[in-house]
């Protein structure tokens, strides 16, 4: 029996069809999630977004349970305004890698648990797109290097415009792989940009899902996990029930289908999450 849900947001709950499933999920998806939650089943969001960037959605869906933000760096009960778990990057490491990224003229955002920063003069098209995703405007500061030296950072996010910039970020990250972890995320409305999610070593959606389950006394064997990229496999592989969207990456779909209780739903733009809910008899 399914006693809990862990859901990625972008590409699963929300798409890029403005007025249909963006910036808010489709009304039928909202209704289904609310109905499941009112049955006493916790619905936990698990995303690479800044934890502050899911507040609007959590309030909209009325989900009074913990959630995962920043690629696993933060576990937070948004409605109770309570941080359950947080992993901060060592300031000396933050300063070193931020310096390298800035030297190579990469667009960069720095994250705390309360908000995010960009350097003055770097705002561009992706700034507007990302602010729309997060429902939050960045603070513009005179020096990101100075902020990296003084702030408690949860996440460092270089945003790559195409494969060449992504490869550059990967090369620059290499000397710090023993102190930091990097994951990659996308958003349907921000193609072709890819979001580098740099966090403290060991941070992942997997470890965050374990902390999430522990905080709610929830057995992950009784949880349904749903995602759309291979980074979501970090938490889905722990779950007894697994789902992937039609628009998911092929590697995630292959992995999901190795689970005993699994299904591939329709596309996010066809409200495919509802197919998954119906398959597991969570809704009629």
Polypeptide structure, described:
This protein has 284 residues and is α/β, with parallel strands linked by helices. It has two domains: 4-86 and 204-279, 3-Layer(aba) Sandwich (Rossmann fold), CATH 3.40.50.1000; 91-200, Hypothetical Protein, Haloacid Dehalogenase-like Hydrolase, Chain: A, domain 2 (2-Layer Sandwich). Helix content is 32%, strand content 23%. It is built from ten helices and 14 strands. It has helices at 27-38, 55-61, 91-103, 125-134, 144-150, 163-173, 205-216, 233-236, 250-256, 272-279, and strands at 4-7, 43-45, 67-69, 74-77, 82-86, 108-111, 116-119, 139-141, 155-161, 180-185, 193-200, 223-227, 241-244, 261-264. The protein has a six-stranded mixed sheet, covered by helices on one side. The protein has a five-stranded parallel sheet with strand order 2-1-12-13-14, with helices on both faces. Strands 3-4-5 form a three-stranded antiparallel sheet, with helices on one face. Helix 1 links the parallel strand 1 and strand 2 (43-45). Helix 3 (91-103) packs antiparallel against helix 5 (144-150). The two termini are 16 Å apart. The mean pLDDT is 96.
